[in-house]
Amino acid sequence: GSVGILILCLVSAAALDFRYHHSEELEEYLKGVHAAYPALTHLHSIGRSVEGRDLWVLVLGRFPTHHKIGIPEFKYVANMHGDETVGREILLHLIDLLVTSYGRDPVITRLLNNTRIHIMPTMNPDGFEATKVPDCYYTRGRYNKNGEDLNRNFPDAFENNSASIQPETRAVMDWIKNETFVLSANLHGGALVASYTFDNGNPVTGSLKGYSRSPDDDVFIHLAKTYSSNHASMYKGTGCDNKQTFPEGITNGYSWYQLEGGMQDYNYVWGQCFEITLELSCCKYPPADQLEKFWRDNKVALIEYIKQVHLGVKGQVTDKNGNPIPNAIVEAKGRPHVCPYRTNEQGEYFLLLLPGTYVINATVPGFKSMLKTVEIPDNTGNFSALKQDFSFPEVSDQIRSRVTSCPKTPLYQELARASAAVKPTVHILVLMTTVLAIFK
């Protein structure tokens, strides 16, 4: 009898309906899920909003409380613009799908056994609560309580971002620093498209041709297409106003419009994490009775996108005694990052690469580089990237290269100076930027 009642309580704790959940309900739901699935989930707050609301993250996986060697970290972040609400709700339904399918659905079971998934339903809880009158286009709730746009608030690799860093932004920056995130997406509304790095640019990255290309452009195109092609309609590329169309439902961020201080570029440059921006609804804050359809439209894409964290190659860099070497640089030849990608405390690296042949260069500062040629298969179906370790026989544990972290000053300026930069006229741009600030 009492066992039956207990089970009933746990089930009802995790039951989720299709409507908007305000802060208290959202917190109650996440706590209910964690109570019902304590071995599969870990709930923590990574910081607080200006008004003191917790920034909750639910972590799901076979080892939810901590990083395990070889298991990549993945994240979804929604509602950084408080009035863009679809992502907030579909991430709650994604949590529901993951916990209820674990042990029943073989694909989701393998996904959770081999991936640590972090889900932040709202990065801007104050903005959501401030949006009293839902609107399809624009409300003040877009901003945080201090009136700042959180997606213009991160350090920028191309120009000095003068915005003062907000508590919500700081919390996310610290979170990125403390985890080995490999892949991520942030969920927005106001358009229907998957947008990818770079959002800002200069002549070196191709800004004069209207496309700001990262060294991993091929991977980003693949990631964006993975989402759009698995979405019910995004891949069709019909814009929201029939004027703007996005072939295959994807766009380079800069090609769509330039922005400074965006979160996806910050993840890629300083977080060693590939992030794309998902615009999920033409209407920013649609009526609640449409939420079920939005969930159905995105369900498959959300899962297929997570699987992409297993693309490419991963491994450990160790010394002659088999101890991990942190801060070793590991990159694929021909695609250097302005902040070289380095191993974590456990000496691990993860590089997202499409199937093909690559030369991987591992460098411990002060020692000879090691090069290994790898043939990368498509491993996403196996839920594990190709494994390639590096052992440095001449390095002993005494040597621990403490590397200063990558500078926060704009990194691409040096590159731009090297190529004779041509500056477009500012006046038309200001006008354009004002119009476009309404998106992303």
Written overview of the protein:
InterPro entries: CarboxyPept-like_regulatory, CARBOXYPEPT_ZN_1, CPM_N, Peptidase_M14, Peptidase_M14_domain. The active site is at residue 279. GO terms for molecular function: metallocarboxypeptidase activity; zinc ion binding. This is CBPM Carboxypeptidase. It holds the Pfam family Peptidase_M14. This protein is an alpha/beta fold and 440 residues long. It folds into 2 domains: 23-310, Aminopeptidase, CATH 3.40.630; 313-420, Carboxypeptidase-like, regulatory domain (Immunoglobulin-like, Sandwich), CATH 2.60.40.1120. Helix content is 30%, strand content 20%. The chain has helices at 2-14, 23-36, 86-101, 106-114, 125-130, 167-178, 217-230, 253-256, 263-270, 291-307, 412-418, 426-436, and strands at residues 41-48, 54-60, 73-78, 116-120, 181-188, 191-196, 250-252, 274-281, 313-319, 329-332, 348-351, 356-363, 370-376, 386-387, 390-392. The strands form 3 sheets. The chain has an 8-stranded mixed sheet, with helices on both faces. Strands 9, 11, 14 and 15 form a 4-stranded mixed sheet that branches. The radius of gyration is 22 Å and the shape is globular.
Give keywords.
8-stranded mixed beta sheet, Aminopeptidase, 2 domains, 15 strands, alpha/beta, 4-stranded mixed beta sheet, Immunoglobulin-like, 20% strand
